[in-house]
Amino acid sequence: MPDLVHVTVIDDGAFWRVTFGGSTGNVLDRHLMAALARTIADARGARDLKAVLLEGRGGHFSYGASVQEHMPEHVRDMLTTFRHLILDILDCHVPIVAVVNGQCLGGGLELAVTSHRIVASAGATFGQPEIALGVFAPIASILLPERIGRARAEDLCLTGRAIGAAEAQQMGLIDDVVDGDPFEPSLAWVRAHFAGRSASSLRLAVAAIRVELSARVRTELPRLEAMYLRDLMSTQDAMEGVTAFLEKRPPAWKNA
User: Among 32, 85, 119, 124, which is most exposed with the fewest C-beta within 10 angstroms?
Assistant: First the structure.
């Protein structure tokens, strides 16, 4: 089995290509989240590192968080592990570019919007489909309005619809759309903008520009997780939506 996260060092340590994935669609289960968190911790300690290029293995960025881990016996640990990963990214202060091919959905999109820039192939697809499973996305509920405004974030989170790269760029969700593999254009961008910068100054600039965002995530995300565990998981429909997905059938909502 390949490593869940692979790091390629570029330009004498100025940049890292971080490729993640351990399953079809690079599903973000707790093992993969923890492996990503360890890599982010390593990045924080790499003195000369100026940017991370983050991409999924194979043809997709990520289908999202593991649906199996939304079941009652796993969901608390899954939410906690994902929160720790997001906070580790916010604490790392290294600029991150999400390099997106294929599907970037659910927890995959939540991971991508934690980055500082998103570059996607023209055929990439984005969405927050949690509502189709009868659940909601705690991280996206904070980070999507920050990135694209409340109205557009509500569109994606409440409808669960998927959008293509062109629409995603139009609404400000992603920064650049390219034909073919987006890695080389992403690498060219970080080289052009960061190669001549001080790594230590870049980190302080990231910390400064995100100080309010980091504080809000630390305050609001535990509240949303509590709502998820206390209110959402006590409904019949949350369990029905997840179970129906795993059983590959349409959900039979009780509206309760």
Answer: 32
